[in-house]
């Protein structure tokens, strides 16, 4: 690649128009400046979401890519000094985006990745949970922001899980399963190192694998110990795990995923919130059925969603 423009030079509309006139559609950013590029996108994502010249699909793609890149960076460097303010800003932006247009969630469903990775999963869970929170009548701005922060960071503890376990194509052995289960507690340890003590964020990070019947982990908590926002996160977490493709299973269409959750996890998930989640997905896919995991289902997965 040939250096086109030093990063300190202003990128004007005139420069942009000249590139378009010469049919140049893509520019590369040097890998050494990747963090600067991501910082630029995070600093400008809210401006992009309010740009009248961008379509809703373009806005959704910019938001989703930026959120996923942010989380991927945190998983690589969970002790970065600005983890908390960046996540809070992204959570607030997500809420505003979902509130700004009635079709924002529907468009997100066509944008999000059908392939599972921890960073895309975390972004998906954040959007699903915040949309469900809004749909069920939560209006408190600080609570919504904390829910978003908790969801974006709910799997941050997986940065300590060896990749060979996370990506293992077959069934986990008992020792590997014990390691996976530690990610919720490890996540809370990382939050504490950032002095992030919000009860909402901590509860989501620690308890998103708990089930209302007491069958979850790490502590086997039951319904009375699990706030609604944790139950919402659990539903979103399970749905995304079932509907997306992983190293050990193919994803399934959302209808099939919801059917599996209803038939196999009815005692584990809050029934009212699950019903609201189903209605939310039905409304979101009514106009456009292209959603994460919208490809034929395969055989039963080799192991349960983590």
Q: Structural class given helices, strands, pairing? A: mainly alpha
**Number of E-type strands:** 0
Taking the alpha carbons of the first and last residues, their distance comes to 41 Å
What are the segments in which pLDDT stays under 50 over at least 5 consecutive residues? 289-304
Strand content: under 5%
Radius of gyration: 20 Å
Largest sheet: none
Tertiary shape? globular
Element order, helices and strands? HHHHHHHHHHHHHH
Helix segment tally: 14
- State mean pLDDT (0 to 100 scale): 91
Helix content: 55-70%
Tell me what the structure shows.
The protein is mainly alpha-helical and 306 residues long. 58% of the residues lie in helices and 0% in strands. The chain contains 14 helices and no strands. It has helices at residues 13-21, 34-49, 56-76, 83-100, 104-111, 118-135, 141-152, 163-166, 174-181, 183-193, 199-207, 228-243, 254-264, 271-285. Helix 2 (34-49) runs antiparallel to helix 3. The termini are far apart.
Name a few traits of the molecule.
306 residues, mainly alpha, disordered C terminus
Short description:
With 306 residues, this protein is mostly helical. 58% of the residues lie in helices and 0% in strands.
Topology:
Blueprint: H1 13-21, H2 34-49, H3 56-76, H4 83-100, H5 104-111, H6 118-135, H7 141-152, H8 163-166, H9 174-181, H10 183-193, H11 199-207, H12 228-243, H13 254-264, H14 271-285
Helix pairs in contact: 2-3, 2-4, 3-4, 3-5, 3-6, 4-6, 4-7, 6-7, 6-12, 6-14, 7-11, 10-11, 11-12, 12-13
